[in-house]
Design goal:
By secondary structure, this protein is mainly α. The chain is built from five helices and no strands. Helix 1 packs antiparallel against helix 5, helix 3 packs antiparallel against helix 4 and helix 3 packs parallel to helix 5.
Length: 153
C-alpha cells in the first residue's frame, strides 16, 4: 500500500475515533446510560416534564443515522480489504456484527415507543456494542496501517 494511503487511513481512524467518542458523549448527555433514562427519553416523564417521542420524530432521526452509520461501517471495512487475510476474516465478522448492532440501535426506539419496554435493554446493549465494535474495527485498521508504516521505513 502506498504511503499516502496509509496517512489518509490513519487520519480516517483518528476522525472515526472522535466520531464514536462524540456519539457516546451525546448519547450520555441527551439520553443517559440507565434503563430509566432511556425509558424516560422515549416514553416521556411527567416528573421531568418531557413528552413521548413520536414515530415521525424517530424516523427523522433514524434516516440520517442509517446513512451515516452504514457508510462509516462500510468504509472502515473496505479499508481493511488492504490488510492481511487473517485481519480481513476477523474484520468481516466485526462488520456484520456492527451492521446488526447499528440497526438494533436505530430501530429499538420505535419498539420502545410502541410499548415493548424490553427494547430499552436492547437499545442500551446495541449502543454499547456499536461503540465497542466500532473502536475494535478502528483498532484493527490502525494496526494494519501501523504495521505497514513500520514495514515501509
Amino acid at each position: 500500500m502506498h504511503q499516502s494511503y496509509r496517512i489518509a487511513i490513519a487520519y480516517f481512524v483518528l476522525f472515526g475515533t472522535l466520531l464514536l467518542a462524540s456519539g457516546a458523549v451525546l448519547f450520555f448527555s441527551k439520553i443517559g446510560f440507565s434503563y430509566e433514562a432511556v425509558q424516560n427519553y422515549y416514553l416521556g416523564s411527567e416528573t421531568l416534564f418531557t413528552t413521548p417521542k413520536s414515530s415521525y420524530g424517530l424516523l427523522e432521526v433514524a434516516l440520517p443515522h442509517l446513512g451515516s452509520m452504514g457508510l462509516f461501517i462500510m468504509v472502515t471495512g473496505h479499508f481493511l480489504l488492504f490488510s492481511d487475510k487473517r485481519r480481513k476474516q476477523l474484520a468481516t465478522k466485526v462488520v456484520i456484527a456492527l451492521f446488526i448492532a447499528a440497526l438494533l440501535d436505530i430501530f429499538s426506539g420505535f419498539l420502545i415507543v410502541q410499548g415493548l419496554e424490553l427494547f430499552v435493554w436492547v437499545k442500551l446493549a446495541a449502543f454499547a456494542l456499536l461503540q465497542l465494535l466500532g473502536l475494535f474495527l478502528l483498532w484493527l485498521l490502525f494496526g494494519a496501517v501501523w504495521q505497514g508504516i513500520a514495514a515501509y521505513k
